[in-house]
Design goal:
mainly beta; 49% strand; globular; OB fold (Dihydrolipoamide Acetyltransferase, E2P)
């Protein structure tokens, strides 16, 4: 397992490469598991991963990342609508929430954004905490 610190659009991420099979790399970014499709896969996984990261920096675009599947079939992931930094987490695991309830404050482009639940349920898992950086599409909380 290899560990890297990468910077995308000025935000630093801690990345661990767990495995590479075919053109799919299994990684952990800031303690969140992902499966990433790598273009132009070669026989040297380290070289391919480094090329992918350099490509992202040169083109100033975030790599295409698919969130790992939730552990339960009844869980609903509440995803980040945009990249940013969590200013305040308003819920914790086990909390009962209602549709429209504020679950966290997200700073993006120097603006505070209210992230609200779009359904009733119970917070099964909180994946990020105050001060964490998130990408668009990251699963912020899981609701059951």
């Amino acid at each position: 397992m290899k560990k890297y610190k990468i910077k995308v659009r000025g935000t630093e991420y801690s990345v661990e490469i767990n495995s590479i099979e075919g053109n799919v790399a299994s990684l952990t970014v800031n303690d969140t598991p992902y499966e990433v499709e790598v273009e132009g896969i070669a026989t040297n996984p380290t070289r391919v991963v480094n090329k992918g990261l350099q490509k992202a920096e040169m083109q100033s675009e975030v790599p295409v990342i698919k969130q790992a599947a939730p552990s339960t079939g009844t869980a609903y992931p509440l995803k980040s609508p945009l990249p940013g930094v969590i200013l305040d987490m308003k819920v914790k695991e086990g909390d009962t929430i209602k549709a429209g309830q504020l679950v966290l404050l997200l700073e993006a482009m120097k603006m505070e954004n209210n992230i609200e639940s779009d359904r009733d349920g119970i917070v099964e898992k909180v994946n990020f905490h105050k001060g964490d950086s998130v990408l668009e599409g990251d699963v912020l909380i899981t609701i059951k």
